[in-house]
Design a protein that fits this description.
The structure is a single chain. Mean pLDDT is 82; it is low at 104-124. This protein has one helix spanning 105-108, and strands spanning 5-9, 16-17, 31-38, 41-46, 50-54, 61-70, 82-88. A hairpin with a 2-residue loop joins strand 3 and strand 4 (41-46). The protein is 3% helix and 35% strand. The chain has a single domain (5-94), classed as Immunoglobulin-like. It is mainly beta.
């Protein structure tokens, strides 16, 4: 794969794919959404038939993309996960972007840096 993004086509069955109830308590298991992971790290939640995933900050080489159904409260239904392996060899590597929750090397030396709290996923 040489593109800097990949589009996954996801077909769900057994529940209705919706982001309207994401983050809410599970009242029944007939609705949910799915999570996309790269190498076991969460990328985002989706509730559409396609998920376009940026390869920003992904190093060239072999990677595993996983789609995991999730209940409204974000509990993953891991036994229904599906994975594919890709060989990412970009034509043009994207610029590395630092995470807002991780300090840059200069900030790590500063005592004034305090990392932001991580928040639960919310509907888009």
């Amino acid at each position: 794969m040489t593109a800097n993004q990949v589009t996954l086509i996801v077909q769900v069955s057994g529940y209705t794919d919706t982001c309207d109830l994401a983050g809410k308590p599970v009242m029944n298991t007939s609705t949910g959404h799915y999570h996309v992971l790269i190498d076991k790290s969460l990328v985002n939640m989706y509730c559409t038939p396609t998920a376009t995933v940026s390869m920003q900050n992904v190093t060239p080489g072999r990677h595993t993309l996983t789609v995991v159904p999730a209940l409204n409260d974000h509990v993953e239904v891991e036994h229904n996960a599906r994975s594919i392996t890709i060989n990412y060899q970009p034509t043009h590597l994207l610029v590395l972007v630092c995470s807002p929750t991780r300090p840059s090397p200069a900030h790590r030396r500063s005592r004034s840096f305090s990392p932001r709290r991580r928040h639960r996923l919310r509907p888009l």
